[in-house]
Amino acid sequence: MSPRLSSYYMQREPSSIRRAQISYGSRLDISEVSVINLAIGNISLPMHPVMIARAKDLLSDNSPFKNGVVRYSSSEGTKECTDAIIQSINAELTVDMSKDIHCVVTDGGSQAMELMLLGVCDSHGDKPILYIDPLYTNYSEFSKRLSISSVSFNRSLNENGFFSEIDITRLRNQLEKDKPNGILIIPSDNPTGQQISRKSIIEIAQLCVEKDIWLISDEAYRNIYFTKNGPTSIWNISKIDVPGIVGRRISIESVSKVWNACGLRIGALVTDNENMYKKVRSEYTANLCANVIGQYIFSSVANLNSTEIVSWYNSQRNYYLKIIDELVLDFGKVLPGLIISKPQAAIYIVLDFKNIVPINFNISDFIDYCACHGRCNIDSKVYTLLLAPMTGFYADSITGSKQARIALVENEDKMKIVPELLSKLLESFMLYQKI
Description:
The chain is α/β, with parallel strands linked by helices. The protein contains 14 helices and 14 strands.
């Protein structure tokens, strides 16, 4: 006998981006098999040099922690950290938003997502949030956690590797039908890797003004783009572009991706609505504050000028673009017929196996096999590969049943062997399943 768990916990399963890693951790032969983990965006690159210097300097005479005392910051975060967040937003944009936005520093972008949902939607209410599928899985997970209702605007992956565009007429019709209180967009999109154009953001913003609803934007990957369009952002549109837009924007920020600092767990909710800011800050007093050591390390970015910040962004983009070009080319060679998304932004590629596998193939079964049993010899070493099933990124469990998302997060040497490794694992899985 044991106490009863809640109904919510009884139904809870690991997130799509963590499930394979948990399964791999239970392998009996784990000491024999090296893993290449592309299931989660856990970046393996070093932080910016000024952040590394701060990390090394934690107990120096210049540090607030020099005596070993680690106190709370204010609930909205230290001024230096909020300045660094706003400076990182403003560095590459053509519209200067630095004096018009308010910032609450959070424990990662994930905490900012929850705060946004609490501020935009009522639990079990008739004002849902509208998501654009496929969607970063944590939004769906947090909606369930908070009992927030949601509706989905669907996109599909075409044979040419591009996801369908956001049809503004169809979006308008869905707004009129479902009456959400906000729309979430991800301009540099996780998981699709597509970049939502400035034109589309303006059209969506105009709809938000017309329907008197919130425009929410996840901008964790804002400065990782591979087009000539520059960064697309809700902060790069002015009140002249969209009259009435001021006061209805919220962005989710993160230092995990562009600044290579996943483990610092520093993010932010940024808004141009002062009342939303004050209420978010009030809600966050229950959390006391975000990680103060993480805040201190990231705050060093406030000492960089815009030119230095943009130079860093350029180096990140160049690094990922090289990996993407090689990976897409090699996937096409070893797995002809595989549909490979065409990344324009972010650090993800979606693979659709539907043209090269039998009809009864299921991506979750394949990923479980790789995590629990898969092993292939490459260059005299045994490997397996962890991926994220796209079933966790769609509102239904059917659409992504033959699709996987890969994160471009392992070092270059490991990324080079991924196409060959995937091909061999797929072949061995077919024999294992006899399909």
